[in-house]
Specification:
four-stranded mixed sheet; alpha+beta; 177 residues; 3 helices; 29% helix; elongated
Length: 177
């Protein structure tokens, strides 16, 4: 039995572009085969709806059915953002050795720091760990609200307290009375 492949395109205005931290048009192109989950071919953010249409044409899908179901499109957007968020949390990288000799890290004591990219929301938040000889980007997140920033900070705190405990730096509180 041959399966039929159909391309679909969905476009929604005013969704957060997590890179530029601006609310823009979001577009997604996906395939559906009989009895299969959708396979996303590509997604884009743009200032104009026409830019999304151009990108869709360049994706290799020349014919599509446009889908306007807000629920479906928001599920795709949220699943993409969730995957990006998980990658931001789990991707750990050592910053260049030159970072140690530049401000503010040159003067900073070893420890864990939360850095905001700007004072207005949305913003990028980063958890940076300064050690004696290296600076590590431990976690990152896109925060649209103060509540999301506080949740990020709480998660960083919980994760790094657990790590310190496992390494023997902190002792668990004595539960005896």
């Amino acid at each position: 039995m041959a399966s039929s492949r159909q391309c679909y395109l969905g476009i929604v205005p005013h969704l957060l572009n997590p890179i530029h931290l601006a609310y823009e048009w979001f577009g997604v192109v996906w395939l559906e085969e009989e009895h299969q989950f959708p396979v996303i071919i590509g997604y884009w953010f743009a200032n104009e709806r026409t830019e999304i249409l151009e990108n869709a044409k360049l994706s290799g899908c020349s014919h599509w059915i446009e889908v306007c179901d807000h629920y479906i499109l928001m599920n795709m957007y949220q699943s993409i953002r969730k995957k990006q968020s998980d990658e931001d949390w789990n991707h750990r990288s050592r910053l260049s050795i030159r970072t140690m000799f530049k401000s503010p890290w040159k003067e900073a004591s070893p420890g864990l720091y939360i850095i905001k990219s700007r004072d207005t929301y949305p913003l990028h938040a980063s958890a940076v760990l300064k050690k004696k000889f290296f600076v590590w980007l431990e976690h990152a997140a896109v925060c649209e609200t103060e509540e999301e920033l506080r949740a990020f900070m709480g998660r960083v705190h919980a994760e790094h307290q657990d790590m310190a405990r496992k390494r023997g730096f902190l002792k668990k509180a004595d539960k005896s009375t």
